[in-house]
């Protein structure tokens, strides 16, 4: 069980960290670039992260579900259930609100980078910050659950 808990905390922590880094460090730098360069980099990030993140999110949820099953009669069970619920909600909301915009940004040609596209990217980032907060909340629940 300890190995599973370590794997869960590392998986969820790294994912939350990557998502935080995109919002706090990558996007602010991208917004300072000329539109054509910005478009190319946003497209690359959207494609690369968009290819990996679905598996990472689902893998994190699977780890949480397994943690819940194995922790059925332990003090940390309820926190693991909360973390799993948050994680599942994040996945659903991501599919509804962030993935469509990400897919549009991933397909953009550098010449098609308009002010409307820049607004969409900023709106994506604003929504993304709520996702980060939810991921961190789930991570805190997991850390507290495995310590109990």
Write the layout of secondary structure elements.
Layout: H1 2-30, H2 35-70, H3 77-107, H4 115-147
Roughly what percent helix? over 70%
Mean pLDDT: 94
Q: What gross morphology would you assign?
A: elongated
Strand fraction: under 5%
- Which class of secondary structure composition applies to the elements? mainly alpha
Cα-atom radius of gyration: 17 Å
**What is the strand tally?**
0
Oligomer: single chain
Largest sheet: none
Q: Helix count, per DSSP?
A: 4
- What is the first-to-last residue Cα distance? 13 Å
Unreliable stretches, pLDDT < 50, 5 or more residues?
none
Element order, helices and strands? HHHH
Describe this protein's structure:
- The structure is a single chain.
- The protein is mainly alpha-helical.
- Helices cover 87% and strands 0% of the residues.
- It has helices spanning 2-30, 35-70, 77-107, 115-147.
- Helix 1 (2-30) packs antiparallel against helix 2 (35-70), helix 1 packs antiparallel against helix 4 (115-147) and helix 2 runs antiparallel to helix 3.
- The longest helix has 36 residues, at 35-70.
- 26% of the residues are buried.
């Amino acid at each position: 069980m300890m190995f599973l808990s370590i794997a869960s905390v590392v998986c969820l922590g790294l994912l939350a960290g990557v998502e935080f880094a995109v919002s706090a460090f990558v996007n602010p730098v991208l917004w300072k670039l000329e539109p054509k360069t910005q478009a190319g980099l946003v497209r690359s990030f959207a494609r690369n992260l968009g290819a990996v993140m679905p598996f990472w999110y689902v893998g994190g949820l699977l780890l949480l579900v397994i943690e819940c099953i194995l922790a059925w009669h332990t003090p940390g069970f309820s926190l693991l259930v909360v973390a799993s619920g948050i994680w599942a909600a994040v996945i659903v909301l991501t599919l509804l609100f962030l993935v469509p915009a990400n897919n549009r940004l991933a397909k953009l040609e550098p010449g098609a980078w308009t002010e409307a596209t820049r607004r969409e990217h900023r709106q994506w980032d604003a929504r993304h910050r709520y996702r980060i907060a939810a991921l961190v909340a789930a991570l805190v629940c997991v850390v507290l659950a495995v310590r109990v």
